[in-house]
Design a protein that fits this description.
five-stranded mixed sheet; alpha+beta; about 35% helix; about 220 residues
Length: about 220
Amino acid sequence: MPPSDWVKKSRLLTLSAFTLIELLVAVAILAILAGLITLLIPQIQNRSHMAASLNNLRQIGAGVMMYTGENNFALPGRVTSGQKWPYLVHEYLQNARVYAAPGDTENFIRREANPLSNARNETSYIMNGYNDLGTLDDETVVVRMNAVDQPSKVILLAIPRTGSRHFYMDMLEGRGNHRDVLNLKAYGDGSTFLFADGSARFLTEETYDHRMWLVNPDFQVP
């Protein structure tokens, strides 16, 4: 091979090879990307869980609407045939698994519990107790959907804190379940809620208002 060809080949090898600095820069870039991905995975998973929870709530909301449609607009009550809302609504759902909130590490599927239990709430959601309409003092009070004047502003279901087995969100119990029981950061800086119009929404802790549990807007919470 002529000397000139050796020179050309040597130059090509030099150009095609990584220098030590280039290799270190490439490793540093890969390390940064790996770190960013590690940080993003929990956020992506959180958003996925939140979206799935909203879907669950919409399905439960549809079930509640069908229940009220067959019961003269009455919402599931505290003493409806001795059965609680999860049991009363489940026959209108395709699958009771929607009672398990994605991301709830102690949901009934993981614990192999019965979501239709009437003894304690094994679902991942808690229903409005309608204390402003007198249900806490008189459990026989019937709350009807057509009595809710602003359904898009009244919460039906939300996510309680881990370990809570309350069926109903009672604002007049203890310091109020809206302080003691609700999980307002189930998904990052907020949580998911089902409203009386059937819509499911994500609300941040800042945009959430405990008065969204009230049917009577003039009711004064102690």
